[in-house]
Structures are given as C-alpha cells and as structure tokens.
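no rush on this but wanted to send it before i forget. what follows is a protein written twice so to speak, once as letters and once as structure tokens for the fold. mainly i need to know what kind of three dimensional shape the backbone takes. thanks a lot i owe you, the record is right below.
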Amino acid sequence: MSNRSDLRQIALLTVVLWTVDVALFFVPSAIAGAAPGAAATARIVLIGLGGIVLSGAVYATVCALAHWRPVARYIAVITVAIICGGLVAGSDLMFQEPLRLALSPSASPLSEQMLLIHGLTNWIGLAWIFGLAGLIFLLLQSNRMVRQRDHDLAAAHAAALQAQNAATAARLAALRYQLNPHFLFNTLNAVSSAVVNLRINEAETMLARLAEFLRITLAADPEAMVALEEELETLHAYLAIEGERFRERLGVRFICPPHLLHAQVPSFLLQPLVENSIKHAVARTTRTVTLRLEARQENDDLVIVVEDDGEAGASPAPQGGVGIRNVCQRLEALYGSRARVEAAALTSGYRVVITMPLQMQRDAAMAA
C-alpha cells in the first residue's frame, strides 16, 4: 500500500508530465509566432485533464499487480496505457471536431480520412505518454519495495542478532551455573561431620565462609566481565572453604603482576579449573598438594595458568571433564578463535593454560 507521501509524489509527477505535454503542444505555434485558436486550446486542455485522470488508472494497475512477475506487470501496464490512450484519443474525436466547427463556423470540416489519421496519431502519442507514466510508476514502486525490503531485512537482522545475543547469554549463563554440585555437598558434609564431632568453631567458620561465597556467587552477573583481582578474591573465598576441609593438604600460590589485576576476565571462569584440582589432586592424596595460579602477559594476550602438583594421572584427560569443557565453551562463545585452552598431564600433577585477548578495565570502560 502507498502512504500519503508516495501519493503526493505520484500526483505531482502526473501533473508535471501532462503539463509538459500540454506545453509542448503550444511550442510550434510559439515558434511560428501565431497564437493557437480557442478550439485548439480547449482541445489540448481536455486531453491534459483526461490524461491526468486516466493516469490514476495506470497507477492503480501498477499497485494492484505489485506481486506479479515483472514481465507480466510490464505487459499489463502497456495494455492499460494503450487503452487509456485510445479513450482520450476517442474523446478528442468525439468532442473536439464539433467544438472546432462551432467556434470557427467558416472552417471546413475534416474528412473521415483526416479524422482517422488524427485519431491514430493522437492514440499513439497518448499511449506513449501513458506508458511513460506507467514506467515512472513502476520505477517508483520498485524503489519503494526495495526500501521496504531493506527495512524488513534490517529489522530481521536486528531481531536475529537480538535472538543470537539472547541465546549466547543463555548459553553463558548455563555454562556459568555448571558448578560442581559436589562442592556444596562436600562442604555441608564436612560441616555436619564437624558438628557431630563437637568441633563447633570449625563448623561455624565453614558455614560463615560458605555463606560469604554463596553471596558472591548469587550476586554475580554470569555474563559480566570482571577484573582479575575480583576473580582472584572469589577464588580466595572458595579456597578458604576448601582449606577448612583439607587443612595442611592444600597449599595455594597466586602469582599475578600488579598491573594485570585490572585485566578483564569472564566471571567465575577459573573456579571450574580450581575445582578440578581439588577433586582430582587434593582429595585423592594425603600429602600436601600445591595449587598454583599464575597470570602473565604475552604480547596482546592474557595468559592464565592453573597447575597442581598432585599425583600423576590423578587429573582428567586433556580437554576432558566438565570443568575444562565449561571453560572452553565460554571462551569460544566470547572470543571465538582468539582464545584457546591447553590442558596436559604433567609428570606430577596437571596444568591448564588459558590464553585470551588482554583487555584492561580502563579500556573496557572507554569502549562502553
């Protein structure tokens, strides 16, 4: 359907087209220096008005056949242009000759042959003008359809992008909440054991640290990027709980240059890897296992190493386990091929190396 702006444009172009046609009729008389007679003037005005009115029929045809194939539309418009040209030419023959004789009594009537030639000439000329109007209407309609299609494509692209972003957010949230349920179970079991054995202070400490950790976990945005310093503080809260369970069996060593504390990382990215070390290294031995977490910069990348010195073969196979798969999937969703995770068993222990684009907190704030 046409809006008001389109209709105004069509009406203006139609009036201009037929005004130019009427003006051209007077050019020969103007060149010869003679003024056209009243009959001729009335005739050409009638043709102009008839052309303007019947151009509406051409435009209506263009609108009605908007969804036809192009060839069929052109044929239909040409047909309507020929019909409209014939109607105006026929009207001219019907009214203009009697009008000419009435206004010029001394004029000689035209022969039938002259009337036929005059009518055919008018028909062909008028059909061309109606055809030109139809072509203009088709071009305007095609331009409007292209604009509408571009608008629809842009809206569809925006909707698809929004849906993709929502799907990515849902995926990240799902991955974020794939924390090992054994952690909560083991912690509560340890609290229960401490209570049964009348280690009330130990139980209270573990419950307080568990409450603090759960507060941090539930308040965090699963889609957010946080400073590495904040991520390490969360790990400290988590490891404080595990330290109550394993005591001297768990050693922790964090290595991070001060300037990298402001590097941006996905929230709770490292916890699944630390949980792996707790589950597969610390929990399976009676000796002290040291968990080492190191952050360093390599060119434009942030490299984070999570490593333990547990028993050989005690950790999951490379690229295996829910924790490592979780990290890989989150980084892929966020960075694509710009991030990678390398996991390998050591002679004593297990190491996971994460490489991702380095983005400092101030750079992220400026980008926002």
